[in-house]
Write a structure and sequence with these properties.
ion channel, Rossmann fold, 22 strands, alpha/beta, 4 domains
């Protein structure tokens, strides 16, 4: 290769200088302008000395040349000899060239800067903010709930990093969530798995980090890689909350995230909620009411004055809060035995409208014995359940259902999914039969004899995209409701859907429960993002090993048809080893957003209950 010439080296240096951006171009223009002004001034002094003296010599000529270079229109007001006018004309022509290039450079630079800002690549300078990494349907629920939680706070910030266009993210959130009130959203474009992109969000000063499971193939691999990137970064490590789609990846995610990560098993929680809802109508609505920020929230509170009392006595301790359980050094226990003694280091798990409203009661009226119904244990009998459809969590649902039902119970799986009935070995109580059926076909459904079942579970088919799957679920629900109305049959219907927007449509079918899995997981992530210390509480709540939420007939607890204070219901439930936390009125069960549910009611307020109403309790199954 031949040696580079001086000309080539100079051109190479010039090209490198020009490639440095707008600042370098402006610098070159300034240099050219300086040369033009000096040359014009020198020519004026040399060729037209009289004109130079008339303009105060060198200083005046330099100023005059500068004005002609920056404002070519100055030539119109010039007067003097022909050489002087010719020199000024040259200065004006040079100025036109320089100013035109300057305008173009500034315009291009400004346009580039605006484009860079639109791409969302600038660093977030915040502290105490909530960071959301990734994008999924759950994001809208999380942003909406955190906005409610921060409604009274000034300067609240939610920073979002996703591999999407920044304006597109902002438009999508604005369309789905609406006004965010005092909470400010900051969107940035980048990959949550890339450490350099994570540095944009000032993670060391963040309050909480939420990692979402993306809507693409193998979402858990993406979440685990993000957790690894968070664990390896330098600086402070705020609490991390992450959603895992498949239970088999929980161990790997826990190892990747370390002790500071709180994991939510999406499949497991959705499966448990579907099973509980199929057996007790209204469970999913109660759980969503516990998880959202619209009404009551769960708090941990330490009151030394309650130390030494039993859990049963503590149920009347608060005037405006409902006691749910205890947090001891050994962990969280909801609805512990009534004689459990509260220790000095124990915290009370309470449900209240706001933590500022929690206060000890001066005293409560005694329960009305005449309204308490004696406890009777219902006789357990085999059940028949119909499952319409199949998906990846169906086998888990059936295994959980097997733990609830009595021996001799039957589950019929009807669908056209090729994997229907797979992976169901070693069931103890259930006998499972698989039938070929198109759940959207009225005649196929009628051939199943749905009236012989006590419970019907309609699953979303994972072979289709979520929108199409929800459409098929709606068709099945409509067919079932019409069959009930026509044939006079009675059975509970629980359905699984993806999109919260379809809930309003599904309510036309009058399904007993509609489990929107993405919404439930989004609500849970929002709660943990706001209060990471509640991970133990919600983990216990969704674990079948302990007490769970049950809406049970009110007539099993108190008399109906007359005014009864909720304090009496609390006492009746306590005698059964249960904790009453609210009630549901059947007459309002179709009215959103609470669907007849009242949690943490006023204990002294009387209510007249009717047949069909429910008491919501925490109880062993």
């Amino acid at each position: 290769m031949s040696k580079a010439t001086v000309k080539e080296r100079a051109r190479y240096w010039f090209d490198n200088t020009m490639s440095r951006g707008t600042a370098a171009l402006i610098g070159w223009l300034a240099l050219v302008s300086l040369v033009l002004i000096v040359v014009v001034s020198a020519l004026t002094v040399w060729l037209t000395p009289d004109e130079a003296l008339r303009h105060d010599g060198w200083p005046g000529v330099l100023w005059l040349s500068l004005m002609h270079a920056l404002s070519p229109g100055k030539i119109a007001g010039d007067a003097g000899t022909a050489p002087f006018l010719a020199i000024m004309l040259g200065a004006s022509l040079g100025g036109i060239f320089i100013v035109s290039i300057l305008v173009g450079v500034l315009s291009a630079g400004l346009r580039g800067k605006i484009e860079e800002l639109r791409k969302g690549r600038s660093r977030v300078i915040e502290s105490g903010h909530t960071v959301i990494l990734g994008w999924s349907e759950q994001l809208y629920t999380i942003v909406s709930e955190l906005t409610k939680a921060h409604a009274s706070q000034h300067g609240s910030v939610i920073a979002i990093l996703a591999d999407r266009d920044k304006p597109a993210m902002e438009d999508a959130i604005r369309a789905r969530v609406g006004d965010t009130g005092r909470t400010r959203l900051v969107c940035r474009t980048g990959r949550p798995t890339e450490p350099t992109d994570l540095d944009l969000l000032s993670l060391s000063t963040a309050r909480t980090i939420v990692v979402l499971s993306p809507e693409k193939e193998d979402p858990d691999a993406h979440v685990i890689k993000t957790l690894l990137a968070l664990a390896k970064r330098a600086g402070e490590h705020p609490p991390v909350v992450a959603a895992i789609a498949s239970s088999r990846n929980m161990a790997a995610a826990r190892l990747a995230g370390g002790p500071g990560v709180h994991l939510v098993d999406s499949d497991d929680i959705a499966a448990r909620l579907i099973v509980q809802s199929s057996r007790q109508s209204g469970v999913s609505v109660v759980c969503m009411d516990l998880l959202n920020f619209d009404g009551g929230e769960i708090y941990l509170r330490r009151d030394p004055s309650l130390a030494g009392r039993s859990y049963g006595q503590a149920l009347d301790a608060y005037a405006t809060a409902t006691v749910l359980g205890l947090r001891t050094p050994g962990g969280v226990v909801l609805n512990p035995p009534p004689d459990t003694v509260i220790g000095t280091s124990d915290e009370i798990v309470v449900l209240a409208q706001d933590d500022s409203l929690i206060r000890l009661a001066n005293g409560t009226a005694p329960a009305e014995e005449r309204h308490i119904v004696p406890a009777t244990a219902p006789a357990a009998a085999p059940e028949r359940t119909l499952m319409l459809g199949w998906n990846g969590r169906a086998a888990r649902i059936i295994r959980y259902l097997d733990g609830y039902v009595t021996p001799g119970s039957v589950l019929d799986v009807a669908g056209d999914h090729p994997g229907a009935g797979a992976g169901l070995a070693d069931l103890r109580n259930l006998t499972v039969n698989v039938k070929e059926c198109d759940g959207t076909d009225r005649y196929a459904l009628e051939s199943l004899g749905v009236g012989v079942y006590q419970h019907v579970i309609v699953l979303s088919d994972d072979r289709y995209d979520p929108r199409h799957a929800d459409n098929r679920t709606l068709m099945t629900l409509l067919q079932l409701r019409d069959m009930q109305a026509t044939l006079g049959e009675k059975y509970s219907i629980v359905s699984e859907m993806h999109d919260e927007n379809n809930r309003a449509l599904a309510e036309v079918t009058e399904a007993d429960d509609i489990v929107i899995s993405d919404t439930v997981i989004g609500l849970l992530l929002a709660q943990l993002a706001e209060n990471p210390h509640l991970a133990e509480v919600f983990g216990y709540l969704f674990d079948s090993a302990g007490s769970e939420v049950y809406p049970r007939p009110v007539e099993n607890y108190v008399t109906t048809g007359g005014p009864v204070a909720f304090r009496t219901i609390v006492e009746s439930a306590l005698r059964r080893g249960e904790t009453a936390i609210g009630y549901r009125l059947a007459a309002k069960s179709g009215n959103p957003p609470h669907y007849g549910i009242t949690l943490n009611p006023d204990r002294s307020r009387t209510m007249t209950f009717a047949a069909g109403d429910s008491v919501i309790v925490l109880a062993e199954r």
